[in-house]
Write a structure and sequence with these properties.
By secondary structure, this protein is an alpha+beta fold. The chain has helices spanning 2-12, 21-26, 60-63, 191-200, 224-233, 237-250, 255-267, 271-284, 289-301, 305-318; strands at 31-37, 43-52, 55-58, 68-73, 76-78, 82-86, 91-95, 105-106, 117-122, 131-143, 146-151, 162-165, 170-178, 186-190.
């Protein structure tokens, strides 16, 4: 019980306010629509963010193998003169001349916290104007020394290359891909990759794609968090336990690896093992709402009304929608 009280005290002292209208309006000019013509002559649309003078970041899969690329702003069209590409990380930076649009401020994913509020802006759905979606951070997954961001700020086709922002209007990632299924998860690549490519990338002409992005690679070459999601969605619990055990060997400090392994144990009815691992997850990160949800399920299975009530209070502060899943 002392553990739960401590978590409630901790969370009560962490408050995230929604972004102001001034903040959301300020980033609007830096969000651009990317138009491409593919090799069949078809027109495609994506999004981009002005991240430095005359430089627009987008996902490489938006412009890969395109015969022509343009961005639209203020009723005008601009063609890039070159680009920088990081194909594996699905990040391309288009470079222009005389594109007088103020860049966004670049943030820092290392300072992000679970359930912290965020918002996205993009041309999802081929919208005439950038559309905005609000949500919160649901997961941070280490990949190549940075954090892939999972959030509940939804987006649709055409949003690839859009911006994910914190409540101060700092860019923290590019909206890149989402998981399949009715209850989709939305993922953004981290702003640190943009910073690195801006300073270390080499200029190239628009060219053919040379490597699949990490999220579109064959199953065995995808990051562990993506493999784990697919196995959990398919209910392959024994295989999930094996994969997450490998994940823990690779990243022994990963709370997400520990959480995914705990889910495998829970679904295989090893409730003792699941509770131990879930308790370790929330010791590392008390704002891990999904882990708290499974602890609530275990408390109810054990008829521990006191702990269940304490976790329900905590979840009502983190993500009240999860309370329905415990019923």
């Amino acid at each position: 019980m002392h553990r739960i009280v401590f978590f409630l005290f901790l969370i009560s002292h962490i408050v995230f306010a929604a972004p102001s209208d001034e903040v959301t309006f300020a980033v609007l000019p830096s969000v651009v629509k990317v138009h491409v013509i593919d090799q069949r002559g078809n027109h495609g649309v994506g999004s981009g963010i002005v991240v430095a003078e005359n430089q627009v970041a987008t996902n490489c899969h938006v412009v890969a193998n395109a015969l022509g690329v343009q961005i639209g702003k203020r009723g005008q069209s601009f063609s890039p003169v070159s680009m920088k590409a990081d194909w594996r990380h699905d990040l391309c930076i288009l470079q222009f001349k005389f594109f007088d649009v103020k860049p966004v401020a670049l943030g820092d994913t290392q300072k992000l916290m679970y359930e912290q509020s965020v918002f996205s802006k993009s041309y999802g759905g081929n919208a005439v104007k950038p559309i905005m979606s609000f949500g919160s951070i649901k997961g941070l997954y280490a990949l190549d020394s940075e954090n892939i961001i999972q959030s509940s700020a939804g987006f649709s086709m055409g949003a690839s290359g859009g911006g994910l922002f914190d409540d101060d209007g700092r860019l923290i990632g590019l909206t890149t891909f989402k998981s399949p299924g009715r209850h989709a998860y939305y993922y953004s690549i981290p702003v640190e990759w943009i910073k690195r490519l801006l300073h270390q990338g080499k200029d190239i002409q628009l060219t053919a794609q040379t490597e699949l992005p990490f999220w579109d690679a064959p199953f065995e070459k995808r990051p562990y968090f993506m493999q784990s999601y697919d196995l959990a969605r398919e209910g392959q619990w024994e295989r999930l336990k094996t994969i997450t055990a490998d994940w823990l060997k690779s990243e022994p400090q990963s709370s997400e690896a520990l959480f995914s392994n705990a889910i495998a144990h829970f679904e295989l009815k090893d409730f003792v093992g699941a509770k131990k691992q879930l308790s370790d997850v929330v010791k590392k990160n008390p704002r891990h709402a999904q882990a708290q949800l499974y602890l609530l399920k275990l408390a109810k299975l054990n008829h521990d009304d006191h702990e269940a009530h304490a976790i329900e209070i905590l979840l009502s502060q983190l993500d009240e929608s999860l309370l329905k899943e415990s019923q």
